[in-house]
Design a protein that fits this description.
6-stranded mixed β-sheet; 68% helix; 26 helices; alpha+beta
Amino acid sequence: MRLHRLDITAFGPFGGSQTVDFDELSAAGLFLLHGPTGAGKTSVLDAVCYALYGSVPGARQSGQGMTLRSDHAAAATRTEVRLELTVAGRRLEITRQPPWERPKKRGSGSTLDKAQSWLREYDAQAGTWKDLSRSHQEIGEEITQLLGMSREQFCQVVLLPQGDFARFLRADAEARGRLLGRLFDTHRFAEVEKRLADRRRVTEARVREGDTELLADAHRMQQAAGDAMELPDAAPGEPGLADAVMAAAAVARSTAREQLTIGHSRLTAAESAQAGAERVLADVRELARLQLRFTQARDRAALMEERSDGYRQARARMERARKAEAVAPALDLRESADAEHGRAAAAQAHARALLPDAFADAGAAGLAAAARRAAEELGGLESARRGEQRLAELVAERAGLDRQERADEDVLQEADLWLAGWEATRAGLQARIDTAQEAATRAEQLGVQREPARKRLNAARMRDQLAGDTDTAAEQVRLAQEQALGAKAHWLDVKEQRLNGIAAELAAQLTDGHPCAVCGATDHPAPARKDAGHIDRDAEDQALAAYQQAEERHAEQERRLGVVREALAAATAEAGDTPTRQLAEEVQELERLYAQAHRDASDLHPAREELRRAQAEHEQRTAARQQAAVRAASRVGHRERLDQERALLEAELAQARGPADSVAARAAQLERQAALLTDAADAARAAEDTAQRLKDADARLADAAFRAGFETPQAAAAAILDDAAHRDLQRRLDAWQSEEAAVRAVLAEPETVAAAEQPPADLAGAERGAALAVQRVRDAASARDAAARRCADLDRLSTRAAVSVRRLAPLREEYDRVARLASLTAGTSADNERKMRLESYVLAARLEQVAAAATVRLLRMSSGRYTLVHSDDRAGRGRSGLGLHVVDAWTGRERDTATLSGGETFFASLALALGLADVVTDEAGGVRLDTLFIDEGFGSLDDQSLDEVLDVLDSLRERDRSVGIVSHVADLRRRIHAQLEVVKGRAGSALRQRGSG
């Protein structure tokens, strides 16, 4: 990488535009960057770093680049850094602009522009620049890939800070590890350590979790096995836990199976004893049953002997009933004939009571003849009955015509009265509709004018309010500007006073034996002293903060004034110059007219509806009038026809009804008389027939009783039994015979007789023996089932434990392997003799390379006296791997680099920095670094040592490198002709470049 040109505008202390021609400075190989303290030497290097990476080193990068802008720059000048360089054979131009808060182009106040970046490449064949990208991310990735270094590595390799490497020489292993880790990006090895440790914790937790589940299963097996299992005394995660649990489970399963075999044997013996007890109980129960059966049969035989007289009487009663059954049909026939004759005589007496006295002695034939005469007269009145019904219809129809005539007269009268005022009604409604339509049109026109008038009135009111706010805001801006100018003048005065006394402030930090930060000398014979009224950095920062706050208040007030003025202009443009009071009166009058027109227009719909209903009613009344006239004309002829037919019917009916009130009344009289005569004739004939049948039934009954052996029919009737009595008597006789047969059969059974001859059976004792045998079987079965469940539970839990052990085996092996690797990489394993962490081991290898590369230059700068070597010895109780020693060829002894003097430390740190640059360059892919910067430290060298160091730096030109030295040492200005001087002033710093000529 070679730098060609750097353009700086409004960056850091540089208020204007500055240019650095690195090609001219690099022509001599060495060039000097010098200037007063605080002038901006570091800002030149920051500009290079910002152009490449878009940020500056350390704490100077804050506020997303807002603090990179120069306080001395004009408000309209934008901060910009442009760097032209060659890297990897490609000539590039990088331009970066940080975020910029610039004044607005219109109005007052400021606006924030985003950061911008450009990347261009020079095309040698075409002789032009070609745009590559304007993306921050793409440019950053492209530059990082070409350089092969991060920003931190670039700042350590290209911008060599000697103070950092001097501290590196004196630092302990931890501090060296942090610096080397940033440079060589060994974070991935630390991540390996962390991941192994995390994986060890995860696998350990999983192993412990698995062992916990295994112990839980072991506890369950112990509960199932009772006292036959002892748990191993081991915690989760300890080795051998799985084998101990499985061994204890095997012992428990063997014990449980022995108990199951014993339970089976006891159950078999108990079941055999139960079967014998049940057989004895069955024999005793059978003996008791037979003895009870014999006793009950003997008792039943004695009882039947006592009741034998009743049985004989029942048999005699049943025999008489069987004889009387032959007389029963004649008895039933006589009772039926007697009942029928009684009913016929009663019906005859009732029918004769309803007839006139003229028919009291008439026989059945005379009553039948009178009924026939009445029926013939009734048939002659049928035509007169139809005429009477027609007459009633004619009267009703004539009354209907009269009602229709009266109704039509009312309709005609009402229609004539309503139609007489129709034209006046229609004209009035049409006038209402026309008035409402005009009001609706007027309301619509006024409604269009309302909203613009309201907006104009509101704008006028806002215009009046903002006019007063504008004056107040302008006064506040003027006051804020005066305060900002006063605060800026005060800050510049304080800053100038501090710069005038900066020597005393730097002298206060000097310590005997330690190099000066300006000249590098370790002796401080006459340090500057602070005088009365000395201004320190805190006072300057307070003044700067006060100025910045005042400037922010000024900008905020200007922004507010701009907002108020913009609002005032908008309100004035909308409202015009018309006074607010006049606009309010116009709006009020417009609202009143609109409300009146809206009220008048609201009558449009009701008026239209009322006119529509009136027109419909006009049509209805006209049609009704016409229909009434038509009906009146048709009724005249119809009424005449009805009157003629009525007169004829009335003459015919007067002759037919005779003395009755009507034909229907006469017909009803004849119809009732014929019915009574017919009923009386039928009743007389029935009474005669039933009397003859009763006489025949008495003769048959007397003959049947004599033949059956009864003296009188009454005796035969008394011997007859009804169905219920017959069934009850037969049931009693059958039950007696069945009981007698059953008793005789039981008393004749040989086994029953034999059982009666034996002693009484002991049933209670046999039942107690059987119950005891059953209980013993239950106890044995319960014990056998418990043993079987214990075996099943132990088998199930043992299988589950075996599965867990097999599942945990690979995990346990993984844990052992990961734990061994984690301990080895963390430096805690016994196999790691030097207790070196993995990252420390990698950094030790890099440090060994850096020491070898640094020794090449250190030998030349120290005239072959000193050599840097890497040491992996342990320091105290700490870990080894990052030790750095120096070998003194004059004494042949190896000692720590912290024992070097100030000049020797400079030699070693410069050599270490150059060696580190070579190693990091190789680590980055061998990118050639043709431009280097070395910062401070030369003041601690004598003339001879300075010559040797410059010779070493000058030798870098052999590799076509250019080295820029940043220093205050005055002797270097005489030795190095190519110089870049930073000159500071009140208006900002400036650059002066002088070539090798």
